[in-house]
Amino acid sequence: MAIHHETWAFIFGLIGNAISFMVFLAPLPTFFQIYKKKSAEGFQSLPYVVALFSSMLWIYYALVKKDASFLLITINSFGCVIETIYLIIFLVYAPSKTKLSTFKLLLSLNVFGFGAMLLSTLYLTTGSKRLSVIGWTCLVFNISVFAAPLCIMKRVIKTKSVEFMPFSLSFFLTINAVMWFFYGLLLKDYYIALPNTLGFVFGIIQMVLYLIYRKAKTPEPTKLQELTNGHIIDVGKLNTMLPSEPNQVTRIGVVTETPTDIV
């Protein structure tokens, strides 16, 4: 008997949850280093703030949508928890100036920005229009997050080195985008599906660049952070993550890490 499209959507969403879970955990080597050195100097808080905001957006979207939104809520609830923990650790060990800028960023984006969108959609929109406004907000934000790998690809082409673009990271982020694309497509939810087409395309391009430049001479190791999808990773530690690591899924779903947005 043929499997119903909603069942397939659940399967893709479940796999997407699993991959996104690993993506969210990818910055752990960075925070172990911060804890070990008792210092966050040299690291940035922006990717974590953005990842937290992205998870908050998708949870709100899922709560308004209600239908077939359980998997969105589960992974982005975990995302909110883990990103909050990352930010707390970051703030504990960050220099005073960095702490102040991080607090300002959190207030402007995650408190006032999200609060303004929440109040405006609750009181100025109703029904399908409310869902549409939230969905478009998530879509536009996700597209901007998925465009972040452009800076890494530019660096790879310029230096002819893939030192800061691990193949496994690009692979897992690409698979993650595929899972959430089919999840959205099968549910006819294009706010989820469309941004992940961009994530898939950029992921494929990154893997092709890796194959082209993988044998190029690697420059001297340096501590570098690149924004690619929503998180921050100390690239020098990245190879210690996962079977050969992902990064941070989707919204729902990253430096070398992407907002992942996980979705």
Automatic annotation (TrEMBL):
Its main location: membrane. The chain crosses the membrane at residues 12-34, 46-64, 70-93, 105-125, 131-152, 164-186, 192-213. It is found in: Cell membrane. Gene3D superfamilies: 1.20.1280.290. It comes from the Eukaryota. GO terms for cellular component: plasma membrane. Keywords: Cell membrane, Membrane, Repeat, Sugar transport, Transmembrane, Transmembrane helix, Transport. It is a multi-pass membrane protein. InterPro entries: SWEET, SWEET_rpt. GO terms for molecular function: sucrose transmembrane transporter activity. The keyword Endoplasmic reticulum does not apply. Mediates both low-affinity uptake and efflux of sugar across the membrane. Belongs to the SWEET sugar transporter family. PANTHER family: BIDIRECTIONAL SUGAR TRANSPORTER SWEET, RAG1-ACTIVATING PROTEIN 1. This is Bidirectional sugar transporter SWEET. It comes from Flemingia macrophylla.
